[in-house]
Design a protein that fits this description.
alpha/beta; Rossmann fold; 18 helices; about 15% strand; binds NADPH dihydro-nicotinamide-adenine-dinucleotide phosphate; binds (2Z)-2-iminopentanedioic acid
């Protein structure tokens, strides 16, 4: 059995209770097979793959917090520091009731290669908690965030590990966590990104993941002879990534006709009203059922269904495994041209294969949504030099990074004879730099 297959089998046996982690590692290991096989004996002797798939450390802790009635609750906090070969650990914090160690490990593993693809010096990590922010008051969120940081602070720092936002963690939560960190450590440092502009945040970080997704999508389409302008786009989700993906898609002349939340989805044939969506989600923190009040001609449907609409481009921007085989079949039947992943691992392995084998251009998450963490790294640079860059400067660097990520993954796919398999291209291009760094630093 080859070294890659041995490693996949070991993971399946050892972590059989961690399906998302197995899904993410299997995909990457399958993709990097040709790179490993070129020096299989050496890598096996040095347990390179075992060192790659086992996090440097996994921190799991208790987070007590107090609700509006004075009652205490306990959630579980996580920080998985996966790999710091190319820079300090970097990755977001997810607050969602579904969070468990499998989800945090898959996200941390993906982050290693995503961060490498940005070309910036950042390692891979992820954290979060099974705390559910929905329906909580500001004070309850504050109580949770302060208590979360009361433990997390021991393990992070501007040159050690720099967390950021993810599902359920936005500017409000980062602010409360930063305040707690600063008070405990007595130091005002760039320990978190996605900070408010008043205390060290970067312009364009809020927009970065969604904008970056569209910059990469635009480049991918352009290189395949397609103009994004005039195209019809499906977006899922209605959070940070979805909202700014819709904004940039509209700026580029495309028409976005859907968005969703965990309860249902909106179809607006005239194009999503972004001002209404921002007011509902960013200002009022309401459900998408409100959208019809702003746009009486739109449709609201309970449950899933975004991928059943006919369009040219699909941008899954909600969560993992939200685009399944039956969705892939519906998209292909409706003539979809491209899928670009705003969320992390939103497409199941089966759906990825189906889309690719039907000629759909598929930009994988670790490339397509890398604009968020890339701009986080630009925030770290600004914090280090104690300067703030203009929106235009950050946005233009973001665009350059996304264009270069597209070409790196496309070139890697080409080099290994994989045509337009951008999934494999991104995995290989992201891995090569991590590989060099791990080999040069010896076994540790
Ligand atoms: P938000 O919390 O701002 O928004 C998440 C959106 O996805 C909401 O509309 C939410 O609906 C929906 N959603 C979340 N979980 C589920 C679920 N289990 N089933 C159905 N819908 C769900 O998060 P972000 O926009 O920041 O993150 C979205 C995705 O993008 C995630 O995969 C994240 O890891 C990824 N990402 C985020 C980056 C960032 O910078 N923020 C960077 C790179 C990737 P509801 O409100 O009903 O829960
Ligand atoms: O998945 C991701 O890349 C993020 N949630 C952003 C991480 C970051 O450090 O900005």
């Amino acid at each position: 059995m080859s070294y890659v297959d041995e490693t996949i089998q070991m993971l399946k046996e050892k972590y059989s209770a961690q399906p998302e982690f197995i899904q993410a590692t299997t995909e990457v290991l399958e993709s990097i097979r040709p790179v490993i096989e070129a020096k299989e004996d050496e890598y096996k002797r040095d347990a390179l793959l075992e060192r790659l798939v086992e996090p440097d450390r996994q921190i799991i802790f208790r987070v007590p917090w107090i609700d509006r009635n004075g009652n205490a609750h306990v959630n579980t906090g996580y920080r998985v520091q996966f790999n710091n070969s190319i820079g300090p650990y970097k990755g977001g914090l997810r607050l969602h009731p579904s969070v468990n160690i499998s989800i945090i490990k898959f996200l941390g593993f993906e982050q290693i290669f995503k961060n490498s693809l940005t070309g910036l010096p950042i390692g891979g990590a992820k954290g979060g908690s099974d705390f559910d922010p929905k329906g909580k008051t500001d004070r309850e969120i504050m109580s949770f965030c302060k208590n979360f940081m009361l433990e997390l602070y021991k393990y992070i720092g501007a040159d050690t590990d720099v967390p950021a936002g993810d599902i359920g963690t936005g500017a409000r939560e980062i602010g409360y966590m930063f305040g707690a960190y600063k008070r405990i450590r007595r130091t005002h440092e760039g320990v978190l990104t996605g900070k408010g502009l008043a205390y060290g945040g970067s312009l364009a970080r809020t927009e970065a993941t969604g904008y970056g997704l569209l910059y990469l999508t635009q480049e991918m389409l352009k290189c395949n002879g397609i103009d994004i302008s005039g195209k019809t786009v499906l977006v899922s989700g209605s959070g940070n990534v979805a909202i700014y993906a819709i904004e940039k898609a509209q700026q580029l002349g495309a028409k976005v006709v859907t968005c969703s939340d965990s309860n249902g989805w909106v179809y607006d044939p005239d194009g999503i009203d972004l001002a209404a969506l921002k007011e509902i989600k960013e200002v009022n923190r309401q459900r998408l059922t409100e959208y019809k009040k702003y746009r009486p001609d739109s449709e609201y449907h309970e449950g899933r269904g975004v991928w059943s609409v006919k369009a040219d481009i699909a941008l899954p921007c909600a969560t993992q495994n939200e685009l399944r085989i039956e969705d892939a079949k519906a998209l292909v039947a409706n003539g979809i041209t491209a899928v670009a992943e705003g969320a992390n691992m939103p497409t199941t392995a089966e759906a990825v294969k189906y889309l690719q084998s039907n000629g759909v251009l598929l930009a994988p998450a670790k490339a397509a949504n890398a604009g968020g963490v890339a701009t986080s790294a630009l925030e770290m640079s600004q914090n280090s030099e104690r300067l703030n860059w203009t929106f235009e400067k950050v946005d233009s660097k973001l665009k350059d990074i996304m264009v270069s990520i597209f070409h790196n993954m496309s070139d890697a796919a080409e080099k290994y004879g994989m045509g337009k398999n951008y999934v494999a291209g991104a995995n290989i291009a992201g891995f090569e730099k991590v590989l060099d760094a791990m080999v040069e630093q010896g076994i540790c």
